[in-house]
Amino acid sequence: MIRNVLLLLATSLMAACASSPYIQTDSDQNYDLSSYKSFKVESPNVESTPELISINPILIQRINRAIEISLSEKGLRSSEKADLVVRFYLGTKREVDRSSDLGSYGYYGRYFETRDQRYIRSDKDEISIRFHDAKSDEVVWYAFTRFKRSNNQNDQESINKLIQEAISSFN
Predict the structure, then answer these.
(1) Of the CATH numbers 1.10.1740.10, 3.40.630.30, 3.40.50.1000, 3.30.160.670, which one belongs to the domain with range 19-95+124-167?
(2) Over 90: is that where the pLDDT of 119 sits?
(3) Which of 98, 103, 151, 167 has an alpha carbon within 20 to 30 A of 109's alpha carbon?
(4) Tens digit of pLDDT for each residue in 46-104?
(5) What pTM value is reported for the model?
């Protein structure tokens, strides 16, 4: 009995530690989102934008596919003459953290200088998804999230889950 309670507690604790990305969304109330029936995805152009040189073009393809899958599951159809144009943008926020070891006392109370500076680089990827009205080109819906770079970017299924979660509040 106690073992089962401890197992349940440990499972609950692990589930609480699993985090999903925080996603910000916004929509323009002047547009009826339910009136859109078709979409077209426009990917960022890596060749004409030098600052995107570090972006993996295969990741762009995966995100493009994930958007198409998620919107199709919502009942929208892909079309060249769409009433909704979806554009997404990728970026990387690079942070550098510094940590120090302030030293310690050695033998016989003598102080040994053991300061150690460590610099840890942390990359966080950002994605912005913008839904534009095809006629006015105004943004009618927007989503933004940051996610920690991992090996999961090489997996279409994990990208599908991220995009599906980001688009979940649309419509």
Answers:
(1) 3.30.160.670
(2) no
(3) 98
(4) 776 666 666 778 888 999 999 999 999 999 999 999 999 999 998 877 777 666 655 55
(5) 0.71
Structure-token match 């493009």, residue found: 64
**In Å, how far are 36, 104, 107, 115 from 111, measured between CA atoms?**
71, 7, 8, 11
List the domain boundaries for the chain.
19-95+124-167
Length of the chain: 171
Rounded CA gap, 43 and 61, in Å?
Answer: 8
Rounded to whole angstroms, how far apart are CA atoms 57 and 71?
21
Beta-carbon count within 10 A of 7 CB: 10
